[in-house]
Recover the amino acids of this structure.
């Protein structure tokens, strides 16, 4: 099967492309001319030069493929419109290219986010069909991407995957936490929450499976997790174990985090670049829970997580060290 992977140069997208290639599928990676190829070494793939925000570049990219995994997405931006330009309009552009293609795409997998579904106030998974309640600009943009998929002609052949927090080798998002713990500092936002999490290679395996399985799962939405819901303290402890050191717990009230995030936003404004820690992100992090369950995808596709948190954090730390990120 020939599979187009958007976002293939990124953390999760590169793992998806690698999984597909390892399973014997032909991989076509949608890349900008300026995209790094660092994570695409060591497995066969072809390149399609394009960008989901450039509609004219997409027809050639989708032509002749059997399945598409749409993993491209913006996770930090200076304003909400930037999120929507990539995560919502970019998705709509890709769907339009598929609709006008001469070749029929058998399966479309949209990599959304638990942020599109919204938090779980009681730290228990909300039903997948519960009304979405995103609390951030990122979550709202991913939900609009989902809406575009559901209203498109390919909807009966589409699968939406909503991962929770994803971590692992190549991930830049958890790197600041590892750096702080390596310096024996462990920031704890208050109020603390309970969250689901999944290792990057496990998430990629689930997404690759959804794109290539023969089972009729079109129209379904799935969430992923590693089988547990963790407190912030448990996640910090797993990073401490991976780093081999104990860190000083520094309790930080939401108000202090908001002040720091405001300063970060001002820096981003002056530097003309997006920053990860924003007031919107603090609001997202401080929700009571971000819990989900992989029960449905296990039932329908037989997928199960393989990597427990402690082992995943050790592998992540080892990769950071090997590649001089730490």
């Amino acid at each position: 099967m020939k599979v187009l992977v958007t976002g293939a140069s990124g953390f999760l997208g590169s793992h998806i492309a690698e999984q597909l290639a390892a399973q014997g599928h032909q991989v076509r990676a949608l890349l900008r001319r300026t995209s790094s190829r660092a994570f695409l070494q060591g497995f066969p793939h072809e390149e399609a030069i394009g960008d989901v925000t450039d509609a004219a570049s997409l027809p050639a990219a989708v032509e002749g493929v059997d399945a598409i995994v749409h993993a491209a997405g913006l996770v930090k931006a200076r304003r909400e419109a930037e999120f929507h330009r990539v995560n919502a309009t970019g998705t709509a552009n890709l769907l339009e290219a598929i609709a006008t293609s001469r070749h029929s795409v058998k399966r479309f997998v949209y990599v959304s986010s638990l942020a599109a579904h919204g938090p779980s106030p009681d730290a228990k998974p909300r039903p997948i069909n519960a009304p979405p309640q995103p609390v951030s600009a990122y979550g709202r943009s991913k939900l609009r991407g989902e809406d575009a998929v559901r209203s498109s002609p390919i909807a009966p052949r589409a699968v939406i995957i909503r991962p929770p927090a994803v971590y692992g080798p190549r991930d830049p998002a958890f790197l600041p936490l590892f750096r702080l713990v390596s310096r024996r500092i462990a920031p704890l936002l208050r109020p603390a929450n309970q969250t689901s999490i999944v290792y990057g290679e496990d998430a990629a395996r689930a997404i690759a499976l959804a794109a290539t399985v023969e089972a009729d799962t079109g129209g379904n939405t799935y969430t992923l997790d590693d089988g547990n819901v963790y407190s912030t303290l448990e996640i910090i402890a797993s990073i401490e174990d991976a780093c081999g050191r104990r860190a000083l717990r520094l309790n930080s009230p939401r108000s202090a985090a908001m002040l720091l995030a405001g300063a970060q936003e001002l820096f981003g404004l002056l530097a003309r670049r997006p920053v990860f820690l924003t007031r919107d992100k603090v609001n997202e992090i401080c929700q009571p829970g971000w819990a989900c369950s992989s029960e449905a995808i296990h039932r329908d596709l037989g997928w199960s997580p393989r990597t427990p948190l402690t082992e995943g954090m050790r592998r992540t730390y080892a990769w950071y060290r090997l590649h001089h990120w730490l």
